[in-house]
Amino acid sequence: MKQLNAVAVSAGPGSFTGLRIGVATAKGLAFGLDIPLISMNSLEIMINCYHNKFTNDNALYFPMIDARRKEVYTAGYNSQKKQITEIACPHINSEFLKNLKITKTLFFRRWSIKV
Q1: Is residue 53 located within the same domain as residue 106?
Q2: Which domain range does residue 80 map to?
Q3: pLDDT > 90 in the chain, percent
Q4: What distance in Å separates the CA atoms of residue 79 and residue 108, rounded to the nearest whole number?
Q5: pLDDT tens per residue across span 82-114
Q6: Looking at the structure, do residues 25 and 49 belong to the same domain, yes or no?
Q7: If we measure between CA atoms, which residue out of 44, 56, 53, 47 comes closest to residue 105?
Q8: Residues 20 and 51 placed together within one structural domain of the fold
Q9: SS3 of 84, please?
Q10: pLDDT value at position 113?
Q11: Are 68 and 17 in contact (CB under 8 A)?
Q12: Which of 75, 67, 79 lies closest to 105, judged by CA?
């Protein structure tokens, strides 16, 4: 533990209970070890880990986390990994796609994170 320089934690979106437990643990470690606590957005972590196998400057990417009840937490990112839509929990259906008002290639990806 003494080799740690900082503690990083996901700030969400995600499971409310899981985030509370993770943040509480991270805060306890950071406070106890007197090191910085770094908070990161879950969707930004996911999009920055994604490596596109082909170049498509017009593509939009929607990393997703299961929110249960047929909903997902997502936000839209462009090919430069810049967030272009707000984080939301929409139903992904034809109405969602119409509201985007785009004619670009869309990529939807749901990551499964196992602990």
Answers
A1: yes
A2: 43-110
A3: 30
A4: 13
A5: 998 888 887 777 777 777 766 566 666 655 544
A6: no
A7: 56
A8: no
A9: coil
A10: 47
A11: no
A12: 79
Instruction: Kindly state whether residue 73 falls inside one of the protein's structural domains.
Output: yes
Model confidence pLDDT, tens digit, residues 37-86 = 999 999 998 898 887 666 677 778 888 888 887 788 889 888 888 998 88
The β-bridge relationship of strands 71-74 and 60-68 is antiparallel
Whether 26 and 74 share a structural domain: no
Identify whether residues 11 and 64 lie together within a single domain.
no
* Whether residues 22 and 72 fall in one domain: no
Residue with tokens 């985007």: 100
Among residues 50, 55, 93, 44, which one has the least CA distance to residue 71? 93
| 50, two tokens | 């994604």
**What single letter denotes the amino acid at residue 19?**
L
**Contact in structure between 95 and 71 (CB atoms under 8 Å):** no
Shared domain check, 92 and 67: yes
Distance CA 22, CA 115 (A): 12
- Total-model pTM: 0.71
20 is a domain residue: yes
Same domain as 34, residue 73: no
